[in-house]
Amino acid sequence: MEYEPVIGLEVHAQLLTEAKIFCGCSTKFGGAPNSHTCPVCLGMPGVLPVLNKKVVEFMLKMALATNCQINPECSFARKNYFYPDLPKGYQISQYAQPPAEHGWVEVELNGGKKRIGITRIHMEEDAGKLMHDEHNPVSRVDLNRTGVPLIEIVSEPDIRSAEEAAAYLRRIHESLVYLEICDGNMEEGSFRCDANVSLRPKGTEAFGTRAELKNMNSFRNVQRALEYEIKRQQYVLEGGGEVIQETRLWDDTAGVSHSMRSKEEAHDYRYFPDPDLVPVAIDEEWLSAVRKNQPELPLEKRERFVRAYQIPAYDAGVLTSTPATASFYEATVKSFPPETLTPTETPAIAKAASNWIMGDILRFLNEDKKDIRECPITPAALAAMIRLIREGAISGKMAKEVIEEMYRTGKTAEAIIKEKGLVQITDEFALVEMIAEIIGKHPDQLVQYRAGKEKVFGFFVGQVMKATQGKANPKLINDLLKKMLAGGT
Ligand code: ADP
Ligand code: MG
Ligand code: ZN
After folding, report:
1. Cβ count near 113 (within 10 Å)
2. Residues near ligand 2 ion, CB 5 Å cutoff
3. Neighbouring-strand partners of residue 74
4. Residues with C-beta atoms within 5 A of ion ligand 3
5. What burial class does residue 169 get, using C-beta atoms within 10 Å of its C-beta: 0-12 exposed, 13-18 middle, 19+ buried?
6. What is the pLDDT of residue 62?
7. Cα–Cα distance measured from residue 300 to residue 2, given in angstroms and rounded to the nearest whole number
8. Looking at the whole model, is its pTM more than 0.85?
9. Which domains does the chain show, CATH number per domain?
10. N or C, fewer C-beta in 10 Å, the chain?
């Protein structure tokens, strides 16, 4: 029997607000343990939570970006359970009245597009952290993270493969980062994903029993964990067994998951409306203010890049991978005033800028683990270098050397060319003389070429390049060689 995976993802994203969700404590990562706490987030008796308005706004940004329906009223609920990192004995979350529902995002897969539904987005507080001492039988608790704002984004069970899950996650991740509401750091836990998986016989409707996977801290891990889980369930079902509803922890080093606990049901948490917090009203005025400040989202930007600059979709994808990369690219292209360009020059420059950024600049930055905002080459300097190539002052080959030097030193292309004496030979007479000499030295190859052996042309190009140390304009070499080998000039 053939089985089909059914996958739904829950993403927890930590919001980049300065203050926690229900008190004024700092949300900064890495302070001394318990230094970012107050009676409210420590869960002392008699204290009252006050909702941080920024949290609602950040949630709304994501809700709009994922095409959700925004409810005019939402409320908070208590999710009750005991754990030492949760001093109140309950987490303030949202349950019966979520703020955003029925959304969707589009993902691209092997050229095709697919819509994945978003069930809901809601706000909640994070719990603290336990630190288990490796050498002593003690555990300590750090409550700095207690009360840090999160949004939970729950997908519909619309995902059908591990690959699709990774594509969906990338889409959610890039949206959060573009909206500047989450830093997206998976290692530090600012972007966490739980994956729910079940199998069903292909062609049937009803869902099978699901397992929930936790503890995956990269896109690759999510994909690997899902691939493993799909195989594991298939093995269980094919052996006549039953999948049990449980939570499993992914162990990336071993490449396997382990059962952590049997899965609790929502009713186990005894959710009830939090009497300390009034419902939140979201009116049209507030919504349109948020909508007005929405930045251009990655998908929109990608489509606009393809339209405006006529670059391939692949290029547009790489160039919009972060907002900073996209602005770097646009600033480079915009350094060429459109009125100075012919209609065919515009796409040529747009593609050249894309090639230099994707091929060289991103590689340098990647090697140095640097962000494009720290790039020693400015967009204007890159544009100036592209201009020098187009004017024939340097060849593309020389430019490879120049751009590396620009990156290492922060100098302009012009300064580097002067320093190194990298001047392209554009003097036709000098070249004609040199080519005549080369042809004279290789009579056999000349005969072969004239007999129709086209490949020999490459040999001559190579000889000229060697003689000029790569400093001659390749187009000029080609033109002159063609003429002269044919017996012209
Ligand atoms: P909980 O919070 O208890 O994990 P939710 O109702 O929030 O439960 O659902 C969690 C996720 O599980 C959702 O993304 C949903 O799409 C997915 N899901 C629900 N049922 C199944 C199933 N049978 N197989 C796979 N995924 C499922
Ligand atoms: Mg869950
Ligand atoms: Zn506090």
Report:
1. 8
2. 10
3. 280
4. 23, 25, 38, 40-41
5. buried
6. 98
7. 38
8. no
9. 3-290 (no CATH), 298-420 (no CATH), 428-485 (1.10.10.410)
10. N
